[in-house]
Design goal:
single chain; 88 residues; two-stranded antiparallel sheet
Length: 88
Amino acid sequence: MHGPSSLWQPCQTGLDTGNWDIRHALEMKYTPGDTWVASVELAAGGVYEYKYVIINYETKEALEWQNGSNAVLAIIMDDTEVEVFDNW
């Protein structure tokens, strides 16, 4: 099975995340309990849109995009670490 990756798109920051190009997707790792995890450094005060995509790592093609609107994550200035839990 090919695991999911996450694509991050900045809304109000200068972070270059590849403009939804799956070649720049944040790779997630499988952990026990059927949970996928990833870490990324984001600027405090930023607002980020993201969604998940399952990628074939041999061909680098998208197999399935998460349906619906993009998820939004807003990080307040005082945050030093944030954990996000999603379901797909």
